[in-house]
Amino acid sequence: MRSEDRRTARTIIELLAETFPKTFFVYAQRRKPLKIGIDRDLVAALDGAVTEHELRLDLGWYCRNRIYRSKLRKGAWRIDFDGKVAGMITENLAPARGQ
Fold this sequence. Notes:
Elements: H1 3-19, H2 38-46, H3 52-63, H4 66-70, E1 77-79, E2 85-88
Helix pairs in contact: 1-3
């Protein structure tokens, strides 16, 4: 990711953390698995505050984080943008140790 895209992603994460404090966290250690399809929900909820392209870049950056990925274990809950349970991870998606 280019440094400009990284800055944009950080800015959008800060916006998401402020707007949806039960779901998005600036600090990776606090992040939780997100609902599948949350991007579509966010596009509607943000009503143009962020472009779809920016949001997809940001969510990709957010979800590729090593700590976030380590939480993608079978049985973990996924959350929606209100921080409510919105599904469960049915298979282990976390990378093997050392990856």
